[in-house]
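Lecture notes, unit on binding sites. The following record was shown on slide 14. It pairs a sequence with iron/sulfur cluster.
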Amino acid sequence: MNDRRSVPLSALQHFAFCPRQCALIHNEQSWEENWLTTQGQLLHHRVDTAEPETRNGIRYERSISVSSERLGIFGKLDLIEINMSSGKYKPVEYKRGKAKIDNWDRIQLCAQALCLEEMLSISITEGAIWYWQTRQRETVSISSELRHETTNVIERVSILLHDSTIPKAKYTTKCKACSLYSLCNPKLSNRDTSANYFISLFSGDFQD
Ligand code: SF4
């Protein structure tokens, strides 16, 4: 993966949610604030600015930069919990909404665990996701299946970022929760409305 762009951890979650959303954000730097994204930023600010502390035998370290050279990924962890007696590390991710059936939040968490394993030469068996809306904490097993799914998504995102392609819009129920809905317009057209599309109109490469 050395000749490819490094993949931000946030892109994995965006890709698992919708490859087009991932490409619009990371290839075209498209972003639109709505109340959902603002709530998410406030939540992360609150988590990131808290001081490190130790309580009941658990050390809490916040806003940690992580990366994996082997996988070509980098990003920031919201929180690491370190059990002082067992020495076990547990990454914890904070999310605005609620737990989902799909794995897109768990993939981001698993990628964080893979970074920590490589950086610290340790093994991580589980992490957790804390959901603000439901005030619930989900324990996530860093299973071989989740690791496989995560490395597969990393590879696909790496290709997407390297090729700078923008997948076409396809309307699904997820679109209702998408912060890029008005930019993407998935119901009006499934045509590519990205900058690359408009450039292709004038370059003679246009294909409908
Ligand atoms: S509106 Fe739908 S198709 Fe468009 S980027 Fe968002 S989730 Fe993807």
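Take-home: The chain has a mean pLDDT of 84.
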